TrEMBL record:
InterPro entries: SCO1/SenC (IPR003782), Thioredoxin-like_sf (IPR036249), Thioredoxin_domain (IPR013766). GO terms for molecular function: metal ion binding. Disulfide bonds join C78-C82. Residues 1-20 form the signal peptide. Residues 39-207 form the Thioredoxin domain. It comes from Haloactinospora alba. Cu cation binds at C78, C82, H169. This is Protein SCO1/2. The keyword Metal-binding applies. Pfam families: SCO1-SenC (PF02630). Belongs to the SCO1/2 family.
């Protein structure tokens, strides 16, 4: 799988991780309390509508309901990065108390909507944590959302999307404030304990 580097525009250019499997585990910053990299204000959740696992419309900008939200793009046929990331997120959520869990959500957006319908996404996420929000949408909305958030998606051409195929995608998890503005980025391989600690710090700041 090829590796490319993503650049996101904001107050400054931010070098983000690229295709799945191409990133290194996050390391704590020298002067930051967070393990994740700060991307404060670089992105906002876009005004795009998807379908959740119950078949209902879900607008990325309007429906997180004031929660701190971790967003990950992946696909259910992913052999390694996606299940590992979701398992890590589930372990991190387990370390939060009840009030913290009510203020934090994990959002999975499929990068492979041709194969990942809402029902399949729902069944897949239940094996990690049934509280996770799973979304699928049109190719156009999926690619627009990914582009707006600095996420790379690399899938085969339509005529080649038959049988088994891979979808390249950014392996980073982006964290957004209750107002829908970006806060942190966790690289692939960030430990669940570090994720849980970052979430706790964020929620304490927002309280």
């Amino acid at each position: 799988m090829r590796c490319t580097t993503l650049l996101a525009s904001g107050a400054a250019l931010l070098a983000l991780t690229a295709l799945a499997g191409c990133s290194e585990p996050a390391q704590p910053g020298d002067d930051s309390p967070y393990t994740g990299s700060s991307i404060e204000g670089a992105f906002s959740l876009p005004d795009l509508t998807f379908t959740d696992t119950q078949g209902e419309d879900y607008n990325l900008a309007e429906d997180p309901n004031g929660t701190t939200t971790a967003v990950f793009f992946g696909f259910t046929n992913c052999p390694d990065v996606c299940p590992t990331t979701m398992a890590d997120m589930a372990q991190a959520v387990e370390q939060l108390d009840e009030q913290q869990r009510e203020r934090f959500q994990v959002m999975f957006i499929t990068a492979d909507p041709d194969r990942d319908d809402p029902e399949l996404v729902g069944r897949w996420l239940e094996s990690f944590d049934p509280s996770f929000t799973g979304l699928s949408g049109s190719i156009e909305n999926t690619d627009q959302a990914a582009s707006d958030l600095g996420i790379s998606i690399d899938r085969p051409e339509p005529e080649e999307r038959t049988g088994e195929y891979d979808v390249g995608h950014g392996s980073q998890v982006l964290v957004f404030s209750p107002e829908g503005d970006s806060e942190l980025m966790w690289k692939y391989g960030t430990e669940p304990e570090d994720i849980a600690e970052d979430v706790t710090l964020l929620l304490d700041e927002e309280a």
